[in-house]
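Q: Here's a chain of 162 amino acids. Please give me its 3D structure as C-alpha cells.
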Amino acid sequence: MIVESVWVTTEDHLQRFSGIVGSTGLSGKMISGFKMPDGFPQVKIPGRVIPLVYLAQGYLKIDHSGLAFTAEPPVPWPGAAFLNTADDAGFVVQREQIVEIKRFDLLGAPKPYSINWIELRYILGENVAEVLLCTGARGLLMKNINPLTDKLYGYLEVFAKE
C-alpha cells in the first residue's frame, strides 16, 4: 500500500508553528503574512509568507515487513516557493520496531490547523523515536485531511498488531 501524500512533523515543530500562528494578528494572517523565524518551513507567495505545519511531505509505503517514508519536494503553484522543507527526509520502520501508534492532538492548536495527527513511536537504536504523520492536501482538499488521516490511523493500528 502506498499513501501518496503524507506530512511528517514533530511535536516540537507543532509547538513552534502554533506559537507563530497564535502571535500573528488577523491582518498579518490575511494580508502581510507571518513573521517567520529563520529556517522555519514556509511557503512564499507574492507579498506573504505562510508557515508550514509539516517538516516534510512525501509518500508512505506500507508492506508486510514495515513502513517507509520518503520525502519529496512540495510542488509549488505559479508564484509560490516552498522554503526550508526537509526534502531529503526519510525513515524505515520494521514492524517489530513499532512501540506504539496513537492519536496526537496539539492542545490549543488554532482551529483551522487542528489536525488529528498519528503519533508513531518506534525503536531506533537504543532509544524510542517518535514522529507525527497525517495525510497531506492543499487548497479545497484540505477538508479531507482528518477523514483520510483517520483511515490511515485505522490501517496502521491494525498493521502494528498483526
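Q: Can you summarize the key feature?
A: The helical segments are 11-22, 26-32, 145-161.
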